[in-house]
């Protein structure tokens, strides 16, 4: 399955996934908790994504579901990046 998030998003995200091997693929369905994203990492990741993509996660985007997989997280970033969405 192809992704549309680009290498920058993947590089940032991989930095918070200690249980995902360097050679293991990061797919839209990868479980972020199973690959090591914990609550502190989620907060730090949130800050990095807000700075990198110049977005602000609104309350409804701050949920377990948003941070469940790379696919759901990227969808939230893309939606927040597009003011017309």
Describe the structure.
- It is a single chain.
- It contains 3 helices and no strands.
- With 85 residues, the chain is an all-alpha fold.
- It has a domain of 55 residues: Non-ribosomal Peptide Synthetase Peptidyl Carrier Protein, Chain A (Orthogonal Bundle), CATH 1.10.1200.
- The chain is globular and about 35 Å long.
- The model has no long low-confidence stretch (mean pLDDT 92).
CATH topology of one domain: Non-ribosomal Peptide Synthetase Peptidyl Carrier Protein, Chain A
Distance between the termini: 24 Å
Shape, principal axes of CA atoms: globular
CATH architecture designation of one domain: Orthogonal Bundle
Order of helices and strands: HHH
Q: What is the CATH class designation of one domain? A: Mainly Alpha
What fraction of residues sit in β-strands?
A: under 5%
The number of helical elements comes to: 3
Quick recap:
This protein has 85 residues and is mostly helical.
Topology (elements, then pairings):
Blueprint: H1 6-14, H2 39-53, H3 70-81
Defining traits:
3 helices; Non-ribosomal Peptide Synthetase Peptidyl Carrier Protein, Chain A; single chain
